[in-house]
TrEMBL record:
Cofactor(s) required, per the database record: Mg(2+)
GO molecular function: ATP binding; ATP hydrolysis activity; GTP binding; metal ion binding; ribosomal large subunit binding
PANTHER family: OBG GTPASE FAMILY (PTHR23305), OBG-TYPE G DOMAIN-CONTAINING PROTEIN (PTHR23305:SF18)
Functional description taken from the UniProt entry: ATPase that binds to both the 70S ribosome and the 50S ribosomal subunit in a nucleotide-independent manner.
Coiled coil: none
Protein name according to UniProt: Ribosome-binding ATPase YchF
Assigned keywords, A-Z: ATP-binding, Magnesium, Metal-binding, Nucleotide-binding
Database matches in InterPro entries: ATPase_YchF/OLA1, Beta-grasp_dom_sf, G_OBG, GTP-bd, P-loop_NTPase, TGS-like, TGS-like_dom_sf, YchF_C
Domain OBG-type G: 3-258
NCBIfam families tied to this protein: redox-regulated ATPase YchF (TIGR00092)
Family label: Belongs to the TRAFAC class OBG-HflX-like GTPase superfamily. OBG GTPase family. YchF/OLA1 subfamily.
Keyword Magnesium found: yes
Amino acid sequence: MSLSIGIVGLPNVGKSTLFKALTNKQVDIQNYPFTTIDPNVGVVEVPDERVDKLAELSHSKKKIYATVDFTDIAGLVKGASQGEGLGNKFLANIREVDAIAQVVRAFEDSNITHIHNRIDPADDISIINTELVLADLETVSKRIISAGSTAKGNNLEAKKAKTDLPILEKFKNHLNANEIISELELNKDETALANELNLLTAKKFIYTINVSESQLEQKWQPDDKLKAAIGDAPYAVICNTLELSISEMKPEEKNALLKELGLPESGLDKLTKIGYRTLNLLTFLTTGEDETRAWTAHIGDPIPKAARAIHTDFEKLFIRAEVINWQTLLDASSWGKAREHGTLRTVGRDYVINEGDVVEIKI
Ligand SMILES: Nc1nc2c(ncn2[C@@H]2O[C@H](COP(=O)(O)OP(=O)(O)OP(=O)(O)O)[C@@H](O)[C@H]2O)c(=O)[nH]1
Ligand SMILES: [Mg+2]
């Protein structure tokens, strides 16, 4: 299981700059709108000191980090659903992502063109959200037509279409009021249908507010208007050009610069953490001579379910597991010593996996 994030925003706001900082891939970054036409796709390893330290402890031959997939697409403009700018067909490239990261420009720089010649992040958010709503409305309306004709039959598909139709109407009414689907209270069937249709506004949103380096140093904060536009979604205040420079630095240089700027971590590290938290994900680990590896599970997963990440059969074949917190294992200096100290626990199927657990699954 790998986390995937689509990067969305107005043209020329710094989406590809963020993408390049994240992935270190060579992508086109230019000071004009619609630089990106075809999507950029990249996989990012999530830096994790736990993997490094445990690999040292176990003398592992390989280290494998958790990964996040990022997709950087063209800029959306007002009227994209009507064909303005590059239209909105390219949104198909992010239909399958888990979360949408919206890049919003707050940085002041008269040298960098803003397509509306003003800096108003709250208003930009409302333009983008409206375009995402309109794209979903298109999807839902198409499905209403096809479900309408399927429902006339007398088979299983017709039965599903009949249950889907009132839900689709509910989605349509909501979208017509320019509201995003994730703000609706959904039951199980409704959630399933929203996922089946890959509705963009049913996905988790993360806002990345692109500020200048000086705004960052002055501890820039969103005003009430922007806070209202963001709503309950998580956000990170980032300087994308600074992140790009940091991403090209050696770790020591990076740490020195962050310290100088009074930042506890880089914007990218913050963004990854937000992504994990927003999607209710956690990391657990396995370690041995062959490899030390970080795995992704959902918060609240019982251990057999989490073990599916390692091997799909593990959920069924699970008998018991040995579990220890990664730091406790490091302190004990070995698996054997941890067992002697009694800090290594044997757990059964009911055990709920925790962030930072190191596990050995017995099947
Ligand atoms: N001053 C400043 N300029 C930035 C920042 N982030 C991006 N830029 C500049 O803004 C311009 C556009 O950046 P891109 O990353 O190409 O923007 P984009 O959103 O991918 O643009 P499109 O692909 O055209 O939609 C480039 O000239 C960047 O150097 C920032 O934080 N501060
Ligand atoms: Mg771009």
